Amino acid sequence: MTISGKSACAGNCEAPFRLPLNRKDSLFHDEDALFQELERIFDICYGCRRCLNLCNAFPTLVELVDESATMELDSVAKQDYWKIVDNCYLCDLCYATKCPYIPPHEQSVDFPRLMLWAKAFNFSERGASFRDRLLASPGRIGRLATIPLVAQIINAAGNSRSLRSMLHLHPDAPLPACHRDTLRKRRNNLVSSASAAKSVDTGVVLFSTCFGNCNEPDPGDDLCAILEHNAIPVALPEKEHCCGMPRLELGDLDAVEKAGKENIPLLAEWVDKGWSIVAPLPACVLMFKQWLPLLFPDDPLVQKVRGAVFDPFEYLVQRHEEGRLKTDFKHSLGVVSYHLPCHLRVRNTGMNTRDILSLIPGTHVEVIASCSGRGGSYAIKREHYEVSMELARPVVDRVRQVIPDHYGSDCPMAGRQIENGLANGSRAEHPLTLLRRAYGI
Ligand code: SF4
Ligand code: SF4
To answer: Which residue's alpha carbon is at the smallest distance from atom 3 of ligand 2?
Structure first.
């Protein structure tokens, strides 16, 4: 495995690329190689500091060095490196928006890739706590919640202060609610795979995602209504499994591989029939677009699915450019404070959500492109909650200043985080919900 990639190019003379992370390589499991690379890159980042305001991983690094005996990285205890790793939630922002040293630069810095390597090594050596495993299993919890009364029990348990304390969840963090009335139940009348196979029409396969299915079913439901209004066929895959993102954040790459093996062949069949795949959660789209291809670069099905997965507004912009998106809006939205989530921002696909909402007459969209601090389950863990709310502060302050008619994010979790920061009883509204309302459908 090329660890530093130094051999790739002596200068930044080619387009940026990402070195794959090969788990089969013996160096992947070599603790000395990992710590050498952590030390090399931490040293560069300590000197550079461009990413200090992105998350708490970089401030933790600076603090550890500044408080060490020699104020140099070599006197920081290696055990403390894990504090930095623990503060990274793999949003990819440092790689995608800040770092001038990414491959092929001779420094070859890919901070998120290194964090993933460290998380995976840590998981394979030490496993994870019960809490962290639980938080990384939204699909399992969602399936349980469909049993009568279980959703109420899970929601009540999540609000119990003693249980939260036992699980090291912060008492003030908003936990996602479980719905019995899941998206897949609501939309079980969509085009079946059998009829889609016979149909000449192609459209959208909705990968509902476990969070979008059980915890936040409204945006997916709104997307179905919008697509149907625009005469675009919508189908559900016969079955789906968690995309693997929560397990990736844990470093459990076996579970990521298992999830990929369950989802990819099924989705690839739809792609072969000419259908596009749309997922209502930016993190899940990023999983198919970036992390799975990075982990399984030689798998042609992974590459095939990668090219056919879209974020909802990315897909709608394409239909608009083809003249296939109706603009028969009935209601204006006024001023919308729209939060662009990091998982979408790093894909560099433009301001699709803003562009579509701006088609609605009497609507002004104000974009906020800072991190909400949600970071998957980061914001609900007791040890990270305060930092996560601090990270969210610029976003929350901006919404307070603008006093919009509506606010929300493409990431429903980020929307809840902003709502929690505002703490004024208002509710975040997903842009798909707003678009559906503007159509009056
Ligand atoms: S990937 Fe995101 S969370 Fe991790 S270090 Fe980079 S900016 Fe911070
Ligand atoms: S990731 Fe790159 S830009 Fe960010 S601190 Fe490290 S070297 Fe600097």
So the answer is: 99
Of ligand 2's atoms, which has the minimum distance to the CA of residue 95?
Answer: 1
Q: 212-236 burial, b if ≥16 CB within 10 A, otherwise e?
A: bbbbbbbbbbbbbbbbebbebbbbb
Nearest ligand to residue 110 Cα: 2
CA 194 to chain centre: 31
Say if residues 122 and 251 touch (Cβ distance below 8 Å).
Answer: yes
Q: Is the CB of 387 under 6 A from ligand 1?
A: no
Sign of CA dihedral 316, 225, 205, 200: negative
Q: 218-229 pLDDT, tens per residue?
A: 999 999 999 999
Helix pair angle (385-402, 412-422), 10° resolution: 80
Mean per-residue pLDDT for 395-415?
96
Average pLDDT, the chain: 89
The DSSP letter of residue 20 is -
- Closest Cα to residue 423, out of 385, 396, 394, 402? 396
Per-residue confidence (pLDDT) for residue 26, from 0 to 100: 86
Q: Report the 3 state secondary structure along 223-259.
A: HHHHHHHCCCCEECCCCCCCCCHHHHHHCCHHHHHHH
Distance 391 CA to ligand 1 centre (A): 12
- Residue 44 Cβ contacting ligand 2 at under 6 Å: yes
pLDDT at 147 over 90: no
Read off the pLDDT of each residue in 190-218 and give the average, rounded to a whole number. 78
| Cα 7 to ligand 1 centroid, rounded to whole Å | 25
pLDDT classification of 4: cutoffs 50, 70, 90: very low
Cα 300–chain centre separation? 23
Which parts of 9-56 fold into alpha helices (H)?
31-48
CA of 111 to the centre of ligand 2 (A): 7
Residue nearest to atom 4 of ligand 1 (CA): 88
Answer for the pair 132, 147: CB distance below 8 angstroms, yes or no. no
Ligand nearest to the CA of 388: 1
